[in-house]
Specification:
Elements (H helix, E strand, L loop, with lengths): L3 E7 L5 H10 L7 E8 L22 H9 L4 E7 L5 H11 L4 E5 L4 E2 L4 H10 L5 E7 L6 H10 L5 E3 L4 H4 L10 E5 H6 L11 H11 L4 E10 L6 H17 L1 H4 L5 H18 L2 H22 L6 H5 L1
Helix pairs in contact: 9-12, 11-12
């Protein structure tokens, strides 16, 4: 069996972070190392990754609490990343370079393993030589709303799937859909392929995954490897998130120009509309349409961000 290193960027982790540590510790395939890339606010903090200002929110872990939690495990390492240096692709690349295991698993601090077999099931397609990367199924957390639960089920179905370059014509952007919320990478292939783009506002996982397909590698969606991960974004938050999505696609036409993106969103709206009508959940229709409109408008503006004043872009 191949060794596994887990890499997680963290920033002001909250109490649910304790559950993440506990679930990772009790996996059937224990990680050799868990590497935390902790964003710190001041350059002066670079020598002490646990030093921090007072947390901005009441349920954010204090430096002392974080230190106590991590000290209870023998495989945790923490490295500081200055806030001004953090980048979705570059910071994760730094973590992979620090790792030495044959397989690296990238997660986010708010993704909680659903059971003790997450790592075992996630890395299996790579160990069997089926794929160079595999990503997990995301299940809604108990506190997530109904619309979020339906959306997760649409984006992360029950059946696993192997995806290759031949699927680009039929699946479009879904052919190289991948999420670093929880994904495993063959480290040798990752390095050989150049790794994540070092400067990107979003989508470092999908940009890299598209490159893998073009090089003849496969991507595996491991539906039996499950994490709890969901959000309750407001329409305004969805707008901003999809603006970033549109910017990333506009910046990388070599990745996204030849695939259809909008059709997936339209298909989801159609399918969920039918589901809500059949179930008599009419109030969810209003939430679906409002959220979808915010996503689509944000995405369209993001795709055209080069025409906008800089002040508008930053806002």
């Amino acid at each position: 069996m191949k060794e596994i290193d887990v890499i997680i960027p963290i920033f002001e982790p909250k109490e649910e972070f304790c559950g993440l540590l506990q679930r990772l510790e009790h996996q059937t395939r224990r990680a050799r190392r868990i590497i935390f890339l902790r964003t710190v606010r001041d350059s002066a903090e670079g020598e002490n990754p646990l030093k921090e200002k007072k947390p901005q929110e009441g349920n954010v872990l204090t430096a002392k609490r974080l230190e106590e939690l991590c000290a209870a495990y023998d495989n945790i390492e923490i490295y500081a990343v200055r806030e001004e240096d953090f980048d979705h692709g570059g910071t994760r690349h730094e973590g992979i370079m620090r790792a030495g295991a044959e397989i690296v698993v990238l997660m986010t601090q708010d993704a909680i393993p659903a059971d003790d077999a997450l790592l075992e099931r996630l890395v299996l397609p790579i160990e069997e030589g089926k794929a160079a990367v595999s990503y997990a199924r995301q299940l809604p957390k108990p506190e997530s709303g109904a619309l979020e639960a339906y959306t997760r089920a649409f984006n992360y179905p029950e059946s696993s799937r192997l995806k290759t370059r031949e699927d680009l014509q039929t699946l479009g952007i879904k052919a190289f859909f991948c999420s670093n919320v929880c994904a495993a990478y063959d480290r040798e292939v990752y390095i050989k392929s150049g790794g994540f783009i070092r400067k990107t506002i979003f989508n470092e996982d999908m940009i890299f995954a598209r490159g893998l397909l073009d090089r003849g590698y496969a991507i595996y969606y491991a539906a039996d490897a499950r994490v709890l991960h969901s959000h309750r974004y407001t329409p305004a938050q969805q707008f901003r998130r999809n603006f970033d999505l549109g910017v990333s696609q506009a910046d990388h036409p070599e990745v996204f120009a030849d695939v259809f993106s909008e059709s997936e969103g339209k298909r989801m709206v159609r399918e969920l509309t039918g589901t809500f009508l059949r179930k008599g959940r009419l109030l969810l229709l209003w939430e679906l349409y409002l959220t979808s409109a915010a996503k689509y408008l944000g995405y369209l503006l993001g795709k055209r961000y080069a025409r906008l004043p800089k002040a508008v872009i930053m806002r």
